[in-house]
Every structure is written in structure tokens, then in C-alpha cells.
Amino acid sequence: MPGESLFNALEPLLERVNKPIQYVGGELNSTVKDWNVGGHGPAGEELTTRWALMYPDAYEVGVPNQGVMILYEVLNEREDALAERTYAVWPDMEAQLREAGLPQFTVDGHRSVRDFDLFGLSFSTELGYTNMLTALDLAGIPLHAADRDVDDPIVIAGGHAAFNPEPIASFIDAAIVGDGEQAVLTVTDIVGEWKAEGRPGGRRELLLRLARTGGVYVPAFYDVSYLPDGRIQRVAPSGDAPGVPWRVAKHTVMDLDAWPYPKQPLVPLAESVHERMSVEIFRGCTRGCRFCQAGMITRPVRERSLTGIGEMVERGLAATGFEEVGLLSLSSADHSEIADLTKGLADRYEGTQTGLSLPSTRVDAFNIDLANELTRNGRRSGLTFAPEGGSERIRKVINKMVSEEDLINTVAAAYGAGWRQVKLYFMCGLPTETDEDVLQIAELAKRVIETGRQVSGRRDIRCTVSIGGFVPKPHTPFQWCAQLGVEETDARLLKLREAIRADKRYGSSIGFRYHDGQPGLVEGLLSRGDRRVGRVIEAVWRDGGRFDGWSEHFSYERWMRCAAEALADLPVDVAWYTTRERGESEVLPWDHLDSGLDKDWLWEDWQDALDETEVDDCRWTPCFDCGVCPQMGTEIEIGPTGKTLLPLTVLGSGRQELLEHQH
């Protein structure tokens, strides 16, 4: 029977796999609804729309994911819908499921993923694509969208990687670009109506209805033609799909206070990568860092109000029992009321075990007052800053307007105020970068240590330098640039490591962590690939590729071998997709997906990068005409609101006041 629990059949497998607790479900605040929660129509037709939501990685990585958690709750609040979660199963569980003839299942109701109407996957990184194929295959859903029938789920991709879904176009039925909260409700309405009408026109009719909204991309309704040299000639709606738009628009939720999710955050049973309750304090970023896809595609900035954040924190702590609150955004210290917010929350939870944390902080947005408020009730851990580039020159190229003196003054204040550990994050392989730009990272780290020793009078000062390889991303000014090759990246990082270690005065005080160039090149292939890259992904998966985001499972040799074989009859190869620079007139695989950013503006910003010209943040300066606000019918929404955070506490009357306010 559809929707039946498979747990009795799964239970014997649990003792044969590592970390069986990740498959059992039952987390605090999880939901299992009746399969027919929406009831039946007069002719017996089903009136429930059912979603299986997947973060295509291990449970410990996927369960704290805010995007999936929010959609899970938004959907389950509807009386005619249900949503359950599924995660990538480890290879040991995959083998057990195949041997037992059991399918990919949800952790909530242990139901087969194939029984659901919709299978939604949230991709924050492209390296999860092979895990999607494992899930489809285990679920008994045909790998290729063209082979599915009316009884198979509609497979929908979302998340940041969905802004270029072309490499997985043959495996997904649709993609939703942008914010998901309202989008999934619109899709739920359309699927619900189609089911209530008796599923007229089958799968194709449903996909047409979704595509005609203008906010759901259905790759099957678009034809791609190529030039003899391998470049795309054009992408156009196919002639037999009337009403399908030429461009698909991203979704933007404007009033974040109207969407205070998650209200009941999930508390994992097993250890996860983030043991905290998180609140997104604003969405979007207009700092204009040219490498940052997240900042570009989530424009404009939309802040939650001080009181809205306060209510979410109060409710979330009461619902979870967590002792740390993460104040999340792309640049949390840029919230227009961050000082009032952190002081208000620290006051509110004074005397409790509740600590506050910000993700990595911009050097020029940090101050000691802010840091002290964050650590008032919690432990004083290390501070993380992201200068991104080692030299002033390269920081101008990437529009990261932070001077070396800014950084030194900031760390001096931190070390002087009692911090002992600072982590600095940089990238290697940025456009126009030279060896000298990267070697400047070593000099910067030495200055940081020397400064720390001077202001603190101590020798136990530590600085960790963490380096990631730069991967050009769609919808950024760097979408045209050539990616640095693997050998060049590794050679540059080796020189840097030697430069750090060479100076005995500082070497032992500077930690050095880096990723080699191999995973970055594969990510580059997938991030800027077109539909032809799908055959590479499938070949890698069939060759055993799984969990490519994990270094112990990733195989560069496998990706290169499979790519060479899969692309052998085409005028393109891995280098064509990665280390080749694009021209202004080239049609890019994602041009028909509208992030709101004007392509001419992105090109001008790319030229500014080459000229080492910086651009201000449009939050505080006149508009630079990136195109988002007029094109998307949106605008920047920031404070101050004039409201204050009442000093409620979970230990006192505040909880009751909050409950009364909610009702």
C-alpha cells in the first residue's frame, strides 16, 4: 500500500550499519502526518499533496540545514499537505537496502520516496549530484525524467546550485530558483488541483501547468542548440510547449517577519555539524564581493526586525532546549541593528547558559563591543575573519574592501581584549592572482601573530590560515573567468606553506589548512557545465561515485576518466568548461534563468575587477543598477525599526507573554 511504513523491514538492517540512529527518525519537533491527511474527493480522488524533501548528503550534514527545515514546517502546516525528510544513505546502508530489496525511505514515516507526489532536493553544492542519482535509483524512480510516468514523483531541484541546473537537466523534472517558502506552496496548490481533477493530461500536463507560472523551470520544455566549436547557440522554449516563458524568474520573499520559520526547529538524535538553534537575521547581501554567488543571487537585502528575531529566538529555545543561538546571514554583523540585537539578546538571557554566535565576521563590521556581547553568556571561542585575498591588489579585484591595516587593527583589538585564537579564511586561484598575491598571506599571518603578542604580552597567540580553492560561479561577475588548474593551485599552496614554515619565529603559531585543487576543478565543471555534463555525472555514479563532497569518498581520477570517456565524441572537455575564459557574447548555460542581475552590469563589474576598481555597498549608497530591484519588483528592506527588544527571559514571565502574543 502506498504510504505504508517500511520500518519493520528496515529494523533488522540497522544493526549491520554504522550510525544506525541516523535512519530511525523521531527527532524532537519532527512530524508524521496521516497519509491521507487531505481526505478524498467525491469520486474518491486523493486531495493530499505529499512531498519528500532531501538534502543530498549524510544525515549529520543535512538535518541542521535551514532551507529544508523551513520547507518541511511550511508544508506540514497545511491541512492538505504533508512533508517528510530523506537524506543520502551511506554506502553500507545502500548495499543493505539493495540486498534486501528495500527503497530509499523517509526518516519520518519510513515511507518509500517513490510513493510521494514530489521529490524535492535542495542543493547547496554541486558535489551532491551523484547522491541524487543514488536516491533516485534506490527509490525505483527512473534516472532520466523522460522515462518517468504519471505515477513517479515530480523531481524538483532547489537551493543555490539550482541557479544552473543544466548539468542535471536530464535527471530532474523541474527546478525552483530562489526562495522556496512561497514557491513550494504554489507548487502544492497546482499539484493538488491537478490531482483533484483526476490527473488530466498525465505528467506532461502537470509539468506544463508548473512551467506556465513563470517561476518553475522545466528543462524538457527547452531546446538547446550548439555551435560547431561547442558553445551554446541558443536556448529556447520548445515548439510543442505553448505558454512556456523564455526566461524563468527567481522567487523572492520580501517580508521575512511574515515567515518566522522554523518555529519548531528539529533537534537531531545523532550528532550533527551544527549543535545549535539558528535564526536567519537577514537574507541577501549587497557588499558586492565578485566571487560570491550567494551574495549575488539572494539580492536584495531583507532584514528581519529586532522584535521578529527576538520572538524567533525565544520560541526556538523553548522548543528545542539548545544552549547556543546562531545569528545567521551572509554577513550577520551588517544587520542595521546588530548592536542593539546582540546587547538585547545578551541582556535577555543573562544568567542562563544561552550563548550567541555569528558565522565568520567581516573585518570592517567587527568591533569589540559586539564580540563581548556575543560571549557574555557563553564561552569565548576563536574568532573567524575572511579577508579572502592576501594582497591589497587582489582584494580590489574581488571587491573585498578591507585594507591590511583594517585587519591588523581588528585582530589587535581582539587579542588585546583576551582572545587567543583567530582564524583567517582566504581563497587561492582568484582571477589575475599571482604567486606574490598568495605569498602575501604568509606575511599577513606573521603580522597578525606579532601584533597579538605585542598587545597581549603573551606568547600563546594562535592564528589559523584556512585556504579554499576559488571556483567561478554562475550569476557572478567571475562567471566568464578562467579557473586556475589543479597543478597551478597545488604549486601555489605549496609555496605558501613553505613561506609560513620558513620563519621559525612564527611558524609554530600559525596553523595552515587547505584543500588541494582537485575537488575544486570538479566543482567548477559542475557549476558552469551545460546539459552535456549530465553524461559525466551519470558515468561517475555508475562507476561508484558517492559522497563527492567528502574527501575520503572523492576520486579525482574517476571524474577525469569518466569525463574523458563521456565527452570523447564532443568538441568540449573538462578544460573547456573550467580553465577556459568566456567572451562577452557567449551564451551561458544559465542565461535563461533570471536572477534579476543584468548581464551587462555583471560584465561591467568583471571589467572593473580587471581594472582593480572597487564598488560600494548599495545599502548605504546610491543604486548601481545591478537590475534586481526593478526587474524583480523588490527593494532593499533595512532598519532601524525604532522597536526595542523586551528583556524577557525563558526563566521568567517572558515565555507566557510570548505565547499570548502568538495567539
Question: How do you describe this structure in short?
Answer:
With 663 residues, the chain is an alpha/beta fold. It has helices at residues 7-14, 59-62, 66-76, 91-100, 129-139, 181-196, 202-211, 293-297, 306-320, 338-348, 368-375, 392-397, 404-416, 435-456, 486-502, 517-527, 534-542, 556-566, 574-578, 599-610, 628-632, 654-662, and strands spanning 49-55, 81-87, 118-122, 154-158, 174-175, 222-226, 232-237, 248-249, 277-280, 282-283, 302-303, 324-328, 355-357, 383-388, 421-428, 462-469, 510-514, 593-594. It has a five-stranded parallel sheet. A four-stranded parallel sheet has the order 14-15-16-17, with helices on one face.
What key attributes describe this structure?
663 residues, 4-stranded parallel beta sheet, 22 helices, 35% helix, Elp3/MiaA/NifB-like_rSAM, rSAM_sf
Give a structural overview.
There is one protein chain. This protein has 663 residues and is of the alpha/beta class. It has helices spanning 7-14, 59-62, 66-76, 91-100, 129-139, 181-196, 202-211, 293-297, 306-320, 338-348, 368-375, 392-397, 404-416, 435-456, 486-502, 517-527, 534-542, 556-566, 574-578, 599-610, 628-632, 654-662, and strands at 49-55, 81-87, 118-122, 154-158, 174-175, 222-226, 232-237, 248-249, 277-280, 282-283, 302-303, 324-328, 355-357, 383-388, 421-428, 462-469, 510-514, 593-594. The protein has 22 helices and 18 strands. The strands form six sheets. Strands 2-1-3-4-5 form a five-stranded parallel sheet. Strands 14-15-16-17 form a four-stranded parallel sheet, covered by helices on one side. It has a three-stranded parallel sheet with strand order 9-12-13. It is globular, with a radius of gyration of 25 Å. The model is unreliable at 650-654 (pLDDT under 50).
